[in-house]
Amino acid sequence: MTIKELEQAVGMTRANIRFYEQEGLISPRREENGYRDYSQADVETLERIKLLRRLQLGLEEIRALQNGESALPDVLAGQLKKLETDQAALDRAKEVCQRLREAGTDYAALDPQPWLRELEREPVPASERFAPPVDELPPPPGHPWRRYFARALDLFLYGLPFTALWALALHLSPQTMNNALFKLFDAYVGIGVMLLLEPLLLSRWGTTPGKWLFGITVRDGDGNKLTWERARQRTWTVFAKGMGYGIPFYALWREYKSYQTVDRQDRCDWERAEDGEPERMEVPDSTARGVTYVGVRLALSVLAFLILSQAAMPPHRGELTLAEFCDNWNFYNSYTELDLRPLSQDGKRTEYPENSGVIVIDVVNSPDGGTWSEIRENGETVGFRYEITYTGRFFVADYMTDTQCLGLLAYVGSLPEVNCVNFRPSGWLNQLPQYSWEYDYTYRGVRVTQQVTDEGYDLSGNVIVLPENQEGELHLIFTVQRA
């Protein structure tokens, strides 16, 4: 039978049953899935224990009876003498209480010494067994999903500052941050913060941000806050046995096994101190807290989205000088990992040193790589122009669009009305015609044009190859400016 059925059959709390099991007084059979299967013999044993505990017998006396080390009549004879002593002490306490009441003494004038001597005279006073004993462990906390989501929120919070560091301070590209190895590294950074910070939180406040949101508190078996060492050991065991050391796939398996343990009302390894004492974890069953969690998690997801979106904004905003435009262009060259030759402050391509070891995939192999310049109207910079002349017998048309893409982002990202919320680089780049050398279009108040004059090339294909000993010439002008 299940533990729920056993509770009903014996009239005993689950915590009591777990206590007696831990003490070795019952030993239920374990099924293949790890759940306990209680028998009728367990019911009878617990009923005997319940009776004997109501008669004020100690656990060691009951254990000796189970092991055949004592006979029940002998044990009960000794217990009867103890109960008679307790009864005599209770009678005396009743008598002293009555006489003290009749004396009419106020609390402030009470002299306790004569009355204490009266209570403590022979025979020996009663033992501390006036009420039926309570034998139970702190109840298993249960609620595996609440605890899982609390842990997930904590890990999200531990890693969020580093997301901001990677994106806003180090300007790592989306390609880098989406790389599987980098994601694993980022996850371990968050786990490292957990291992350092969580013991402090548990020992000082008895909770963590995620647990606090669900109203979850963690205490030791006596109801006190964990010591720092106990909290450190608990957090490390969570990492090792609950999270599988963060190892992909193995971590999922450990999380599943932990879920099974909590679901069947057992304790996980980290819920016991080294001496085996179980901790007390309170997990309120509150729908309102669950709804609040969803709201907080959505808000934090929006914050993370804004951080990553802000990372796509260029360093210079507003009206740009040519040097600032070039800085923006170089920013997107690194951000998109195109690795084109950077621009100097005057809009021209720079050269990598011969011994730099950098392999350059450039736009085209023109002598100067093209030049960017300002478009000015009425003394103001209203846009930027890219101009290049190419001569040769071979080039790939796709490679001739990268520098224009970077220029478009460098300019559009600087506009005052563009911000991290409404700026989607892919949306702007998707407007560029893919199979047209010449175009003139306006999108969201920005005019983008490209004009090409050529001699000797067939520009209908993607790969342009001229016969041997024959060269052509291509002149391209690209502009991006206010409409």
Note down, in words, how this protein is organized:
With 483 residues, this protein is an alpha+beta fold. The protein has four domains: 64 residues, Multidrug-efflux Transporter Regulator, Chain: A, Domain 2; 49 residues; 167 residues, no CATH class; 161 residues, no CATH class. The chain contains 16 helices and eleven strands. The strands form four sheets. The chain has a five-stranded antiparallel beta sheet with strand order 5-6-11-9-8, with helices on one face. It has a two-stranded antiparallel sheet with strand order 1-2. Helix 9 runs antiparallel to helix 11. The longest helix is centred in the N-terminal third of the chain and has 32 residues. The chain is elongated.
What is the structure about, briefly put?
The protein is an alpha+beta fold and 483 residues long. It has helices at 3-10, 14-22, 40-54, 59-66, 72-103, 112-120, 144-169, 174-177, 180-205, 209-214, 228-242, 250-263, 287-310, 322-335, 402-412, 425-429; strands at 29-30, 36-37, 217-219, 280-282, 371-377, 380-392, 394-396, 439-443, 446-455, 463-465, 472-482.
Task: Annotate the secondary structure layout.
Elements: H1 3-10, H2 14-22, E1 29-30, E2 36-37, H3 40-54, H4 59-66, H5 72-103, H6 112-120, H7 144-169, H8 174-177, H9 180-205, H10 209-214, E3 217-219, H11 228-242, H12 250-263, E4 280-282, H13 287-310, H14 322-335, E5 371-377, E6 380-392, E7 394-396, H15 402-412, H16 425-429, E8 439-443, E9 446-455, E10 463-465, E11 472-482
Antiparallel strand pairs: 1-2, 3-4, 5-6, 6-11, 7-10, 8-9, 9-11
